[in-house]
UniProtKB/TrEMBL annotation:
Keyword Transferase assigned: no
GO MF assignments: mRNA binding
Span of domain RRM: 1-68
Organism: Zostera marina (Eelgrass)
GO cellular component, one term: mitochondrion
This protein's UniProt keywords: RNA-binding
Protein name, entry field: Putative RNA binding protein
Classification via InterPro entries: Nucleotide-bd_a/b_plait_sf, RBD_domain_sf, RRM_dom, SLIRP/GR-RBP-like
Gene3D superfamilies associated with the record: 3.30.70.330
């Protein structure tokens, strides 16, 4: 799966403004997840409800809203 294939797979639900498959830096292979952005919330909701738990290219997929990353841990400054 690459970015373009992911975009095409979800384009039936609305305008896809971003599709990105996350790749492993060391191996260059897909890490098994990605992100899709739609131009409208309605398109995103329709895509989630229609594809979650379904098969895409031979794999069952989970489609949900992405959560923001928690802030990075700030180590205390030991030089004070």
């Amino acid at each position: 799966m690459d970015d373009q294939t992911l975009k095409e797979a979800f384009s039936d639900f609305g305008e896809v403004i971003e599709a990105r498959v996350i790749m492993d830096r060391m191996s260059g292979k897909s890490r098994g997840f990605g992100f899709i952005g739609f131009s409208t919330d309605e398109a995103a909701i329709q895509a989630m409800s229609s594809t979650n738990g379904k098969e895409l290219h031979g794999r069952n997929i989970i489609v949900s809203v992405a959560n923001d990353r928690p802030p990075a841990f700030d180590a205390p400054d030991l030089n004070k």
